[in-house]
Amino acid sequence: MKDYKKYYLIPATQEEVYLALTNPLSIKLWTGAEAEMSTIAGSEFSLFDGDIVGKNLEFVENQKIVQEWYFDGQEEKSIVTIKLHEHKKGTSVELLHTNIPTESYEEFVDGWDSSYFGELLEFFEE
Question: Where is the Activator of Hsp90 ATPase homologue 1/2-like C-terminal domain (predicted)?
Answer without folding.
Answer: 12-121
